[in-house]
Amino acid sequence: MLCKGKSEVASAFARVAFAGRDGWGKIEISQLKDTDPNELAFMFGALEGFAFHNEILSLFQNIDSILFEGVQEDLKEYVYDFVSKNLEFVETEKYNSDLMTNQKALFDGLVFGYGKASTYDTALTKQQLWLISMLSEVRDLINLYTKDKTVQEYDLADKYFLNGRGITILKLVYGNQELFLGQNVWSSYSQLVKLHRTYYFLNQKQNEENKNDIRVPFMSMSGYPGVLGSGDEFFTLSNGIGIAGNHYDIIYSQNENQTYSISEKGFPFWMRIMSANIQILLNNSFNKHFYIENQSSAGQIVADNIMQNPLSIGNVQLIVVDYNKFKTFKRKNGNQQQTQYRIIKQMNKLTNSTAWLIETVPYDEPKSKQNSFHSKLSNTSQNQIKRNEQQSYTGEDIQMLDISDILQDNMSFALTSIPSSELAYQRAGYNDYVQKDSVNKSLHQFKLFLFGRIEDNTTQFNSVINFRAKIIENEQKKVHDIEGFKYLIRYNDYSSDTESISPSREPSSKKDKYRDPCYSISPRCELRKIEKQAIAIGAIDAKVTSWLMMQDTNFISQLGPTLSHQLPHYNVTQLDSLSHFAHNGVPEEIDKCRWIQRDWNNSLKISTMSLFVLFASILCLLILIAAVVFFIITFIILLHKERKEMASNIKMYEGIDINVGFQTE
């Protein structure tokens, strides 16, 4: 038990499994008695920092090596100065929300636990640990203040894939039989250090109200060691809410009059999304066992929380799915251990608020109002989200849309780490960046290929058409079950897919050599061979959930580069010579990149009946053990007594001669 001073941090139960052949580390923490929420959060962080201190150190070393590769020293100093000032703000700020205080306690616990486990040689500073959780914000800072030198196509592609964050796909099966939510993260293979996390929250008030049937609310997520808000942005909540999304980059803009209102005086995204998740989790209006017609929108809660004093960097696009509104059910016989469900209501059409798209928007202001590296605190956090008749919400720094009807009409919806809202697409610099090379037709076509374009539409959200979106549109039609969706989320058929060919290349009889393993749903950029420099970048993990899996708040995941269409296995020894690769703590190989399911019990239940059954079972076991022990002792005593009698009888005949003869006639 970790201790802080003379008192225990918290009373809790934890299970930790270190990364094995599947590549995933696992940590599960549950509260065993009523504890102050901040102490509980502190304990969550402390156990992760203590148990995974080696993995946290490895991740930081890899990130520091790659993130600042080729970055000028003054910019690196500015980034660390920004991180330090942001940490100072968070530590001194008087929070408007108890949940923000809770997230601060989570980080304090991480620092404490890591410090207990690390040695002088392996110690990371508090500032360095804070930088790990602010990875998305730091990437944007570097992009904003790095002059664009990507005039060659492959240089541009490398930058895109190095910073490109991933895809998120929502797929509706024909007849509304199933609703899949999946995410595939792409990045440097240096970040192949991953965790499954499960946090249980015991609500004492709920326990008092209904002592016979209390399901402990919990949250499961994937992420990186030390990155407390996941970093992947993939969460499943025990009350039927699934959240998945990507960060997108602010790319360098040639518009000298446009810059961004960035301030160190704000909350990083990880604090805001974790606060949103806990608020949803402890909200009794979300009940995954019964349908509630007028319950609050999970999307609204997420949007409200991520608007709390943002930094304007580390922008994100999220899909929030309320699986309670997809189908409704109840367990057979009310048995918690049953895994089969009886559907009591199935929607002929998706209802409003089943799925929401939320996208944060960089806040810009005239350059004359800002300093070179530093800028004034924006007032965007004071903006109110306004609802219009199209089930959408708009604000200066957020765009939000109910995509239930769009999903029903198109049967799928995808995010490709390119802004979906026209406002974000322009403010993040994509429109200027794509159009500025219109004279150079080859480069212009290539930028359209990578970053797409915004199609004219009647809503503030539009379709981004790029090579990956086209592949998803073509392949999603083949998905009819979970196996088909797993195939889609890890798809890479670059050797045959025509969408994997850059349009800037002239047709030739040898066009196959222009096919690029980077240009697919699940990239494998290290497999480049001809005319292109291989880089250790690709899709590093995938996560998938569905309505059926969400009944037990489960998801399946696969770590490592895709093996789609018989692509070769990943092996770390083959990547040593590649750029953008540091492999501290990265597994040398992963066991066939198999899909795994979180295998710990995720239906923890506190109830009077279950406790009675538990105690009765223990009592029966003790009685059985006592009976076995009594039988063994009795058997030994009887055996000893029998042997003693035999020895006594033998002793009676000692010293007596017995003659045996035969009488003959």
TrEMBL record:
It is an enzyme of class 3 (hydrolase). Gene3D superfamilies: 3.60.60.30. Residues 496-506 have a biased composition (Polar residues). Its EC number is 3.1.1.-. GO terms for biological process: phospholipid catabolic process. InterPro entries: PLipase_B-like. GO terms for cellular component: extracellular region. Keywords: Glycoprotein, Hydrolase, Lipid degradation, Lipid metabolism, Membrane, Signal, Transmembrane, Transmembrane helix. GO terms for molecular function: phospholipase activity. The chain crosses the membrane at residues 611-639. Residues 496-515 are annotated as: Disordered. Belongs to the phospholipase B-like family. Putative phospholipase. This is Phospholipase B-like. It comes from Streblomastix strix. The lineage of its organism: Eukaryota, Metamonada, Preaxostyla, Oxymonadida, Streblomastigidae.
